[in-house]
Amino acid sequence: MDAFFVSVELLSHPELRGKPVVVGGRPDQRGVVSAASYEARQFGIHSAMPLRTAARLCPHAVFLDGRHHLYSEWSDCISAILAKYSPLVEMASIDEAYLDLTGTERLLGPPFAAAHKLREEIWQRTQLPASMGLAATRLVAKVASDLAKPRGLLWVPAGSEEAFLAPLSVRKIPGIGKVTEAGLHALGIHTVGQLAAVPLEKLEEAFGQWGVALFRKARGQDAYEFFVDAEPKSISHNHTFGVDIDDEEVLLSTLSHLSEKAAKRLRDSGLLARTISVTIRYKSFKTITRARSLREPTSLDSVILRTAKQLFLANWDRRQMIRLVGVELSAFEHAAPQLDLLDAGRRERLEKLARATDRLRDRFGFDKIQRGGSLRLPDE
Description:
The structure is a single chain. By secondary structure, the protein is α+β, with helices and mostly antiparallel strands. The chain has helices at residues 4-12, 38-41, 51-57, 68-83, 105-108, 111-126, 138-148, 161-165, 178-186, 192-196, 200-207, 210-217, 248-268, 301-315, 344-364; strands at residues 21-23, 35-36, 62-64, 89-93, 96-99, 132-134, 153-155, 234-245, 272-282, 287-298, 322-333. The relative contact order is 0.08. It is built from 15 helices and 11 strands. The longest helix has 21 residues, at 248-268. 42% of the residues lie in helices and 18% in strands. It is globular. The chain folds into 4 domains: 4-66, MutS, DNA mismatch repair protein, domain I, CATH 3.40.1170; 75-155, Alpha-Beta Plaits; 161-217, 5' to 3' exonuclease, C-terminal subdomain (DNA polymerase, domain 1, Orthogonal Bundle), CATH 1.10.150; 234-374, 2-Layer Sandwich (Dna Ligase, domain 1).
Protein backbone atom coordinates (compact mmCIF):
# COMPACT_ATOMS: atom_id res chain seq x y z
CA MET A 1 0.00 0.00 0.00
CA ASP A 2 1.20 3.53 -0.79
CA ALA A 3 1.88 5.74 2.27
CA PHE A 4 -0.74 3.59 3.96
CA PHE A 5 -1.30 5.44 7.24
CA VAL A 6 -1.45 8.79 5.43
CA SER A 7 -3.78 7.40 2.76
CA VAL A 8 -6.18 6.16 5.47
CA GLU A 9 -6.11 9.56 7.17
CA LEU A 10 -6.90 11.29 3.85
CA LEU A 11 -10.18 9.37 3.69
CA SER A 12 -11.25 11.39 6.77
CA HIS A 13 -9.43 14.58 5.72
CA PRO A 14 -9.73 14.91 1.93
CA GLU A 15 -8.89 18.61 2.23
CA LEU A 16 -5.29 17.59 2.99
CA ARG A 17 -4.72 15.89 -0.37
CA GLY A 18 -1.69 17.35 -2.12
CA LYS A 19 -0.24 18.73 1.12
CA PRO A 20 2.72 17.47 3.15
CA VAL A 21 1.18 15.24 5.83
CA VAL A 22 3.00 13.45 8.66
CA VAL A 23 1.42 10.73 10.81
CA GLY A 24 2.87 9.93 14.22
CA GLY A 25 2.05 12.78 16.57
CA ARG A 26 2.39 16.51 17.08
CA PRO A 27 5.61 18.27 16.04
CA ASP A 28 6.45 19.12 19.65
CA GLN A 29 5.84 15.59 20.97
CA ARG A 30 8.32 12.85 21.69
CA GLY A 31 8.17 10.03 19.20
CA VAL A 32 8.91 9.36 15.57
CA VAL A 33 7.24 9.62 12.17
CA SER A 34 5.03 6.62 11.40
CA ALA A 35 4.31 7.64 7.80
CA ALA A 36 4.76 10.62 5.51
CA SER A 37 2.90 11.63 2.36
CA TYR A 38 4.86 11.81 -0.87
CA GLU A 39 4.63 15.59 -0.65
CA ALA A 40 6.30 15.47 2.79
CA ARG A 41 8.98 13.08 1.55
CA GLN A 42 10.13 15.74 -0.92
CA PHE A 43 11.42 17.67 2.12
CA GLY A 44 13.45 14.68 3.32
CA ILE A 45 10.92 13.40 5.85
CA HIS A 46 10.79 9.63 6.27
CA SER A 47 9.52 6.94 8.64
CA ALA A 48 11.28 6.57 12.01
CA MET A 49 12.54 10.17 11.89
CA PRO A 50 12.02 12.14 15.14
CA LEU A 51 8.91 14.30 14.91
CA ARG A 52 10.85 17.41 15.90
CA THR A 53 13.32 16.82 13.05
CA ALA A 54 10.43 16.44 10.60
CA ALA A 55 8.98 19.75 11.83
CA ARG A 56 12.29 21.51 11.21
CA LEU A 57 12.53 20.09 7.68
CA CYS A 58 8.96 21.09 6.79
CA PRO A 59 7.42 23.57 9.27
CA HIS A 60 4.23 23.89 7.22
CA ALA A 61 3.53 20.12 7.20
CA VAL A 62 0.28 18.89 8.75
CA PHE A 63 1.00 16.58 11.71
CA LEU A 64 -1.61 14.01 12.71
CA ASP A 65 -1.81 11.56 15.61
CA GLY A 66 -1.78 7.91 14.56
CA ARG A 67 -4.99 5.87 14.76
CA HIS A 68 -3.64 2.35 14.64
CA HIS A 69 -6.96 0.67 15.33
CA LEU A 70 -8.26 2.31 12.15
CA TYR A 71 -5.25 1.21 10.11
CA SER A 72 -5.74 -2.35 11.34
CA GLU A 73 -9.39 -2.27 10.23
CA TRP A 74 -8.45 -1.15 6.71
CA SER A 75 -5.64 -3.72 6.60
CA ASP A 76 -8.19 -6.42 7.44
CA CYS A 77 -10.42 -5.18 4.59
CA ILE A 78 -7.55 -5.32 2.12
CA SER A 79 -6.52 -8.75 3.36
CA ALA A 80 -10.04 -10.01 2.64
CA ILE A 81 -9.78 -8.70 -0.93
CA LEU A 82 -6.40 -10.37 -1.42
CA ALA A 83 -7.79 -13.71 -0.26
CA LYS A 84 -10.20 -13.67 -3.23
CA TYR A 85 -7.26 -13.79 -5.63
CA SER A 86 -5.10 -16.51 -4.10
CA PRO A 87 -5.28 -19.13 -1.36
CA LEU A 88 -1.64 -18.29 -0.55
CA VAL A 89 -1.37 -14.83 0.99
CA GLU A 90 1.46 -13.85 3.32
CA MET A 91 0.93 -10.57 5.19
CA ALA A 92 4.46 -9.23 5.57
CA SER A 93 3.21 -6.26 7.58
CA ILE A 94 0.07 -4.20 8.11
CA ASP A 95 0.46 -2.63 4.64
CA GLU A 96 2.39 -5.20 2.61
CA ALA A 97 1.59 -8.69 1.39
CA TYR A 98 2.82 -11.40 -0.98
CA LEU A 99 0.43 -13.43 -3.14
CA ASP A 100 1.25 -16.61 -5.05
CA LEU A 101 -0.78 -16.51 -8.29
CA THR A 102 0.49 -19.90 -9.47
CA GLY A 103 -2.40 -22.00 -10.79
CA THR A 104 -4.94 -19.15 -10.77
CA GLU A 105 -4.85 -18.48 -14.54
CA ARG A 106 -8.01 -20.46 -15.23
CA LEU A 107 -10.04 -18.33 -12.83
CA LEU A 108 -8.27 -14.98 -13.02
CA GLY A 109 -6.54 -14.96 -16.39
CA PRO A 110 -2.84 -14.16 -16.95
CA PRO A 111 -0.99 -12.97 -13.81
CA PHE A 112 -0.50 -9.43 -15.13
CA ALA A 113 -4.22 -9.07 -15.83
CA ALA A 114 -5.05 -10.51 -12.40
CA ALA A 115 -2.66 -8.08 -10.66
CA HIS A 116 -4.16 -5.14 -12.55
CA LYS A 117 -7.69 -6.25 -11.63
CA LEU A 118 -6.67 -6.67 -7.98
CA ARG A 119 -5.13 -3.21 -7.80
CA GLU A 120 -8.24 -1.68 -9.32
CA GLU A 121 -10.55 -3.57 -6.96
CA ILE A 122 -8.62 -2.35 -3.93
CA TRP A 123 -9.01 1.22 -5.18
CA GLN A 124 -12.70 0.89 -6.05
CA ARG A 125 -13.62 -0.70 -2.71
CA THR A 126 -11.38 1.31 -0.38
CA GLN A 127 -10.16 4.41 -2.24
CA LEU A 128 -6.69 3.48 -0.97
CA PRO A 129 -3.82 3.49 -3.49
CA ALA A 130 -1.69 0.40 -3.95
CA SER A 131 1.40 -0.44 -5.98
CA MET A 132 2.34 -3.92 -7.16
CA GLY A 133 5.33 -5.79 -8.46
CA LEU A 134 4.87 -9.00 -10.43
CA ALA A 135 7.80 -11.43 -10.69
CA ALA A 136 8.84 -15.04 -10.28
CA THR A 137 10.40 -14.41 -6.85
CA ARG A 138 9.34 -12.38 -3.85
CA LEU A 139 12.59 -10.40 -3.76
CA VAL A 140 12.18 -9.14 -7.32
CA ALA A 141 8.45 -8.53 -6.82
CA LYS A 142 9.27 -6.41 -3.75
CA VAL A 143 11.84 -4.32 -5.64
CA ALA A 144 9.44 -3.90 -8.57
CA SER A 145 6.65 -2.81 -6.24
CA ASP A 146 8.89 -0.18 -4.62
CA LEU A 147 9.87 1.17 -8.05
CA ALA A 148 6.22 1.24 -9.16
CA LYS A 149 5.13 3.60 -6.36
CA PRO A 150 2.86 5.44 -6.29
CA ARG A 151 -0.12 3.61 -7.81
CA GLY A 152 1.88 1.62 -10.33
CA LEU A 153 2.19 -1.97 -11.52
CA LEU A 154 5.57 -3.26 -12.72
CA TRP A 155 6.05 -6.72 -14.26
CA VAL A 156 9.47 -8.37 -14.46
CA PRO A 157 9.18 -11.38 -16.83
CA ALA A 158 10.81 -14.63 -15.71
CA GLY A 159 14.39 -14.83 -16.93
CA SER A 160 14.95 -11.07 -16.93
CA GLU A 161 15.56 -10.66 -13.19
CA GLU A 162 19.31 -10.04 -13.34
CA ALA A 163 18.97 -7.53 -16.19
CA PHE A 164 16.23 -5.71 -14.26
CA LEU A 165 18.27 -5.53 -11.05
CA ALA A 166 21.69 -4.82 -12.58
CA PRO A 167 21.52 -0.99 -12.91
CA LEU A 168 19.93 -0.45 -9.48
CA SER A 169 21.77 0.73 -6.39
CA VAL A 170 22.63 -2.12 -4.01
CA ARG A 171 20.50 -0.31 -1.40
CA LYS A 172 17.39 -1.21 -3.42
CA ILE A 173 17.84 -4.86 -2.44
CA PRO A 174 15.74 -5.80 0.62
CA GLY A 175 17.97 -6.55 3.58
CA ILE A 176 20.87 -4.32 2.53
CA GLY A 177 21.11 -1.44 5.00
CA LYS A 178 23.61 1.31 5.68
CA VAL A 179 26.27 -0.96 7.18
CA THR A 180 26.27 -3.50 4.34
CA GLU A 181 26.05 -0.71 1.78
CA ALA A 182 29.15 0.93 3.26
CA GLY A 183 30.99 -2.40 3.19
CA LEU A 184 30.08 -2.94 -0.47
CA HIS A 185 31.10 0.61 -1.39
CA ALA A 186 34.48 -0.01 0.25
CA LEU A 187 34.91 -2.87 -2.22
CA GLY A 188 33.94 -0.62 -5.13
CA ILE A 189 30.47 -2.21 -5.45
CA HIS A 190 27.68 0.31 -6.00
CA THR A 191 25.15 -1.40 -8.28
CA VAL A 192 23.44 -4.78 -8.15
CA GLY A 193 25.13 -5.67 -11.43
CA GLN A 194 28.54 -5.06 -9.88
CA LEU A 195 27.53 -7.19 -6.89
CA ALA A 196 26.40 -10.03 -9.18
CA ALA A 197 29.83 -10.02 -10.85
CA VAL A 198 31.67 -10.71 -7.58
CA PRO A 199 32.59 -14.39 -7.02
CA LEU A 200 30.86 -16.13 -4.14
CA GLU A 201 34.20 -16.84 -2.45
CA LYS A 202 35.07 -13.15 -2.29
CA LEU A 203 31.68 -12.24 -0.81
CA GLU A 204 32.04 -14.99 1.81
CA GLU A 205 35.51 -13.73 2.66
CA ALA A 206 34.25 -10.18 3.13
CA PHE A 207 30.84 -10.82 4.72
CA GLY A 208 30.93 -14.36 6.06
CA GLN A 209 27.67 -16.32 5.75
CA TRP A 210 25.85 -13.11 4.79
CA GLY A 211 27.93 -13.18 1.60
CA VAL A 212 25.97 -16.23 0.41
CA ALA A 213 22.70 -14.32 0.83
CA LEU A 214 24.15 -11.34 -1.06
CA PHE A 215 25.22 -13.65 -3.88
CA ARG A 216 21.65 -14.97 -4.19
CA LYS A 217 19.96 -11.58 -3.79
CA ALA A 218 22.04 -10.06 -6.61
CA ARG A 219 20.50 -12.68 -8.90
CA GLY A 220 16.96 -12.06 -7.68
CA GLN A 221 16.75 -15.35 -5.81
CA ASP A 222 14.71 -15.79 -2.64
CA ALA A 223 16.31 -17.34 0.40
CA TYR A 224 13.16 -19.33 1.09
CA GLU A 225 10.11 -20.61 -0.75
CA PHE A 226 6.42 -19.84 -0.43
CA PHE A 227 5.27 -22.17 2.35
CA VAL A 228 1.70 -23.42 2.05
CA ASP A 229 1.67 -24.29 5.75
CA ALA A 230 3.43 -21.12 6.89
CA GLU A 231 2.04 -19.92 10.21
CA PRO A 232 3.06 -17.28 12.74
CA LYS A 233 5.20 -18.20 15.75
CA SER A 234 3.30 -15.69 17.86
CA ILE A 235 0.50 -13.14 17.61
CA SER A 236 0.77 -9.89 19.52
CA HIS A 237 -0.86 -6.48 19.85
CA ASN A 238 0.53 -3.52 21.79
CA HIS A 239 -0.78 -0.06 22.61
CA THR A 240 1.37 2.98 23.47
CA PHE A 241 -0.61 5.64 25.34
CA GLY A 242 -0.40 9.26 24.23
CA VAL A 243 0.37 10.21 27.84
CA ASP A 244 1.58 7.94 30.65
CA ILE A 245 -1.36 6.69 32.76
CA ASP A 246 -2.31 4.76 35.88
CA ASP A 247 -6.09 4.64 35.36
CA GLU A 248 -7.02 1.01 36.03
CA GLU A 249 -10.28 1.17 34.05
CA VAL A 250 -8.52 2.47 30.95
CA LEU A 251 -5.68 -0.01 31.32
CA LEU A 252 -8.01 -3.01 31.68
CA SER A 253 -10.25 -1.88 28.82
CA THR A 254 -7.17 -1.52 26.61
CA LEU A 255 -6.01 -4.98 27.65
CA SER A 256 -9.46 -6.32 26.75
CA HIS A 257 -9.33 -4.68 23.31
CA LEU A 258 -5.84 -6.05 22.60
CA SER A 259 -6.85 -9.55 23.76
CA GLU A 260 -9.86 -9.57 21.45
CA LYS A 261 -7.78 -8.50 18.45
CA ALA A 262 -5.17 -11.17 19.13
CA ALA A 263 -7.87 -13.83 19.65
CA LYS A 264 -9.54 -13.00 16.33
CA ARG A 265 -6.25 -13.28 14.45
CA LEU A 266 -5.70 -16.61 16.17
CA ARG A 267 -9.08 -17.95 15.01
CA ASP A 268 -8.54 -16.53 11.50
CA SER A 269 -5.34 -18.62 11.35
CA GLY A 270 -7.16 -21.74 12.53
CA LEU A 271 -4.91 -22.00 15.58
CA LEU A 272 -5.13 -22.46 19.33
CA ALA A 273 -2.70 -20.86 21.80
CA ARG A 274 -1.40 -22.46 24.97
CA THR A 275 0.77 -19.57 26.22
CA ILE A 276 -0.46 -16.05 26.99
CA SER A 277 1.96 -13.20 27.74
CA VAL A 278 1.44 -9.64 28.96
CA THR A 279 3.95 -6.80 28.52
CA ILE A 280 4.01 -3.66 30.68
CA ARG A 281 6.29 -0.72 29.89
CA TYR A 282 6.53 2.01 32.50
CA LYS A 283 7.21 5.73 32.12
CA SER A 284 10.87 5.00 32.94
CA PHE A 285 10.95 2.61 29.94
CA LYS A 286 11.45 -0.32 32.31
CA THR A 287 9.67 -3.22 30.58
CA ILE A 288 8.46 -6.50 32.05
CA THR A 289 6.86 -9.49 30.31
CA ARG A 290 5.04 -12.22 32.18
CA ALA A 291 3.61 -15.41 30.66
CA ARG A 292 1.35 -18.28 31.68
CA SER A 293 0.81 -21.63 29.95
CA LEU A 294 -2.72 -23.03 30.02
CA ARG A 295 -3.69 -26.62 30.73
CA GLU A 296 -5.65 -26.64 27.45
CA PRO A 297 -4.93 -24.50 24.37
CA THR A 298 -7.66 -21.98 23.50
CA SER A 299 -8.86 -19.40 21.01
CA LEU A 300 -11.66 -18.00 23.21
CA ASP A 301 -11.69 -14.29 24.00
CA SER A 302 -12.90 -14.87 27.55
CA VAL A 303 -10.10 -17.31 28.47
CA ILE A 304 -7.38 -15.17 26.89
CA LEU A 305 -8.69 -11.98 28.49
CA ARG A 306 -9.10 -13.55 31.93
CA THR A 307 -5.53 -14.82 31.87
CA ALA A 308 -4.14 -11.53 30.53
CA LYS A 309 -5.91 -9.52 33.26
CA GLN A 310 -4.68 -11.89 35.98
CA LEU A 311 -1.11 -11.53 34.74
CA PHE A 312 -1.41 -7.76 34.50
CA LEU A 313 -2.93 -7.20 37.94
CA ALA A 314 -0.48 -9.57 39.61
CA ASN A 315 2.56 -7.79 38.15
CA TRP A 316 1.54 -4.13 37.88
CA ASP A 317 3.63 -1.82 40.06
CA ARG A 318 0.96 0.75 40.92
CA ARG A 319 3.59 3.25 42.04
CA GLN A 320 4.64 3.77 38.41
CA MET A 321 2.84 5.33 35.44
CA ILE A 322 2.41 3.07 32.41
CA ARG A 323 3.48 3.93 28.88
CA LEU A 324 2.58 0.71 26.99
CA VAL A 325 0.70 -2.55 27.46
CA GLY A 326 0.69 -5.56 25.18
CA VAL A 327 -0.74 -9.07 24.79
CA GLU A 328 0.99 -11.95 23.01
CA LEU A 329 -0.25 -15.46 22.16
CA SER A 330 2.15 -18.30 21.40
CA ALA A 331 2.78 -22.07 21.66
CA PHE A 332 0.27 -22.75 18.89
CA GLU A 333 -1.52 -26.01 18.16
CA HIS A 334 -3.86 -27.18 15.41
CA ALA A 335 -5.50 -30.13 17.15
CA ALA A 336 -8.82 -29.65 18.95
CA PRO A 337 -8.36 -29.47 22.73
CA GLN A 338 -9.52 -32.26 25.05
CA LEU A 339 -12.49 -30.71 26.83
CA ASP A 340 -14.04 -31.57 30.16
CA LEU A 341 -17.42 -33.10 29.24
CA LEU A 342 -19.22 -31.12 31.94
CA ASP A 343 -17.93 -27.90 30.38
CA ALA A 344 -18.41 -28.91 26.75
CA GLY A 345 -21.82 -27.26 26.32
CA ARG A 346 -20.70 -23.90 27.65
CA ARG A 347 -17.47 -24.03 25.66
CA GLU A 348 -19.37 -24.82 22.46
CA ARG A 349 -21.68 -21.81 23.00
CA LEU A 350 -18.70 -19.54 23.53
CA GLU A 351 -17.06 -20.83 20.35
CA LYS A 352 -20.24 -20.19 18.35
CA LEU A 353 -20.44 -16.68 19.79
CA ALA A 354 -16.82 -16.03 18.82
CA ARG A 355 -17.39 -17.23 15.24
CA ALA A 356 -20.53 -15.09 14.91
CA THR A 357 -18.68 -12.05 16.26
CA ASP A 358 -15.81 -12.63 13.83
CA ARG A 359 -18.24 -12.69 10.88
CA LEU A 360 -19.79 -9.38 11.98
CA ARG A 361 -16.35 -7.80 12.42
CA ASP A 362 -15.24 -8.98 8.98
CA ARG A 363 -18.30 -7.28 7.52
CA PHE A 364 -18.54 -4.07 9.54
CA GLY A 365 -15.03 -3.57 10.99
CA PHE A 366 -13.36 -4.82 14.16
CA ASP A 367 -14.20 -1.89 16.42
CA LYS A 368 -17.91 -1.96 15.57
CA ILE A 369 -18.35 -5.09 17.74
CA GLN A 370 -16.82 -4.89 21.22
CA ARG A 371 -17.04 -6.58 24.59
CA GLY A 372 -18.43 -4.34 27.31
CA GLY A 373 -15.03 -4.11 28.99
CA SER A 374 -13.44 -2.79 25.81
CA LEU A 375 -15.83 0.10 25.21
CA ARG A 376 -13.84 2.77 26.96
CA LEU A 377 -10.68 2.97 24.86
CA PRO A 378 -7.95 5.56 25.28
CA ASP A 379 -7.10 8.12 22.60
CA GLU A 380 -10.62 7.98 21.10
